[in-house]
Amino acid sequence: SPKGSSHDEL
Amino acid sequence: MNIFRFAGDMFHLISILVLLLKIYATKSCSGISLKTQELYALVFVTRYLDLFTDFISVYNTVMKLVFIGSTAAIVWCMQWHPVVKRSYDRELDTFRHYFLVGACFVLALFLHENFTFQEIFWAFSIYLEAVAILPQLVLLQRSGNVDNLTGQYVFFLGAYRAFYILNWIYRYFMEQRFSRWISCISGLVQTALYADFFYYYFLSWKNNAKLHLPA
């Protein structure tokens, strides 16, 4: 599962 | 993902493609700051360090590759393309952008979300993107040359900022955990600098329009 990186914005 | 952010990403991508196409079509980069484009390339490279470690979505990965690729193509064109590089305003594009890199890195060492390699470079890229327009702004003030800075480029750049601010407002109200303060505050500084750039763009454009009035 994709790591819930808090940086999902480009 | 919300519509504001998607639109913001699309406008950002289009602005880069418009600039790349303009440079490639006219085989000229006069009026464009190579230093600003180098800073943008550094922004994307340092922000997308998680490109191969964190998979968020196909869209996210594809867009990261396209942003890095298109900005690298502009830097390559301006520096190495045999015809384009001759039109680069080397003697006017003299902003000492290394100071910006250093200052943003020091700031990222103090202001970040977590003290990890990836997080510090992520914060660095956010701060650097905010000030990356400065060399271009200074070049525009000096040269007043908007030949390659088309109105579309400026419009899409402005739309990108506007929609990203709407995206943060939307996420602030819709998500209980709003942890985007670094992006948000730096993004507001960036938008203010873009507004300054748009102001000088408009002045240059108006002056050029007067210059070319039918005799």
From TrEMBL, chain B:
GO terms for biological process: protein retention in ER lumen; protein transport; vesicle-mediated transport. The keyword Phosphoprotein does not apply. Pfam families: ER_lumen_recept. Its main location: endoplasmic reticulum. It is a multi-pass membrane protein. GO terms for molecular function: ER retention sequence binding. It is found in: Endoplasmic reticulum membrane. The chain crosses the membrane at residues 56-77, 98-115, 121-141, 153-173, 179-202. GO terms for cellular component: cis-Golgi network; endoplasmic reticulum membrane. It comes from the Eukaryota. PROSITE patterns: ER_LUMEN_RECEPTOR_1, ER_LUMEN_RECEPTOR_2. Keywords: Endoplasmic reticulum, ER-Golgi transport, Membrane, Protein transport, Receptor, Transmembrane, Transmembrane helix, Transport. Coiled coil: none annotated. Belongs to the ERD2 family. PANTHER family: ER LUMEN PROTEIN RETAINING RECEPTOR (PTHR10585). This is ER lumen protein-retaining receptor. It comes from Actinidia chinensis var. chinensis (Chinese soft-hair kiwi). The lineage of its organism: Eukaryota, Viridiplantae, Streptophyta, Embryophyta, Tracheophyta.
